[in-house]
């Protein structure tokens, strides 16, 4: 499915990179919201093109002023996980007091989900391995489950929302861990499990929420405000120079990263 969107044999967009932070070099004559010299972060998402020294972004697109308390690297790391987490928590209609489980709580999307669910007043449980317990607890999870030792569906606990960022479960496998009207957020997952979940509302009050998150300008502004207020803390695992891009991708593909990996693009213009 992804190949049909991004290119069957090779990437349709040859310059990869879905998010960025940097300084505005120049603006079009009708632009009023931004000026040259403004520090911004942006999330072109599927349009990519951010692994570059320059990227054109639309004034009314997913771009916002960089919070002053964040470095460029930190700001660049906010949008992928942050906007995905905002999208899915909004779709799940999260409320204060909800019991929320985040599978993959130490990843790029997971670290944002834990912090934002906590901010919205939820009780948060994170699922990760022991090495990441300290990180996930520091982000606001009241409880952390080690997936290498414990199956979260076996503990007897039930949740209003289960957010799966690694494709570790399906609606059929976790339905007993969902409360009545509970929602499974299938942020990553296989097509067969997603198709099977589409029929669930016919027979059950529990449902799955899936699909692409999209890139919304208002989410970028909200992420900036939350970061400025100290509610959303960027989590950066490793930093690479542009020349080591292949190594950066190889590390991400291990699926073991904690938070984000950031690449610094040298400015030789
Ligand atoms: N639907 C959408 O619009 C949308 C948007 C954005 C992203 N996504 C998808 O979301 C997924 C997550 O991306 P990401 O960048 O957040 O992932 P990631 O950062 O690569 O996730 C890695 C983390 O997941 C943990 N992990 C791995 N297997 C686990 C398991 N079985 N149980 C619990 N934790 C586990 C790892 O911890 P350990 O090292 O301890 O295992 C690691 O810290 C990707 O598949 C991406 O394509 C979807």
Question: What brief labels describe this structure?
Answer:
binds NADP nicotinamide-adenine-dinucleotide phosphate, 269 residues, alpha/beta, Rossmann fold, 3-stranded antiparallel beta sheet, globular, 9 helices, 2 domains, Quinone Oxidoreductase, Chain A, domain 1
Number of domains: 2
How many beta-strand segments?
11
Q: Compounds present?
A: NADP nicotinamide-adenine-dinucleotide phosphate
User: How would you characterize the largest beta sheet?
Assistant: 6 strands, parallel
pLDDT average, as an integer? 95
Class per helix and strand makeup: alpha/beta
Radius of gyration, in angstroms, nearest whole number: 19 Å
User: Could you say what the CATH topology of the largest domain is called?
Assistant: Quinone Oxidoreductase, Chain A, domain 1
Q: In CATH's first tier, which class of the largest domain applies?
A: Alpha Beta
Outline the low-pLDDT stretches.
none
Order of helices and strands: HEEEHHEHEHEEHEHEHEHE
Shape: globular
Strand numbers in spatial order across the main sheet: 6-5-4-7-8-9
Number of helical segments with 4 or more residues: 9
Strand content: 15-25%
Please estimate the helix content: 25-40%
Q: Separation of termini?
A: 38 Å
The CATH superfamily of the largest domain is identified as Medium-chain alcohol dehydrogenases, catalytic domain
How does this model look, in words?
27% of the residues lie in helices and 20% in strands. With 269 residues, the chain is an alpha/beta fold. The strands form 3 sheets. The protein has a 6-stranded parallel sheet with strand order 6-5-4-7-8-9. Helix 3 (79-91) crosses helix 4. The longest helix is centred in the first third of the chain and has 13 residues, at 79-91. The protein is globular. The structure holds NADP nicotinamide-adenine-dinucleotide phosphate. NADP nicotinamide-adenine-dinucleotide phosphate binds at residues 81, 84, 103-104, 106-110, 127-129, 131-132, 147, 165-166, 168, 187-188, 212-213, 255-258.
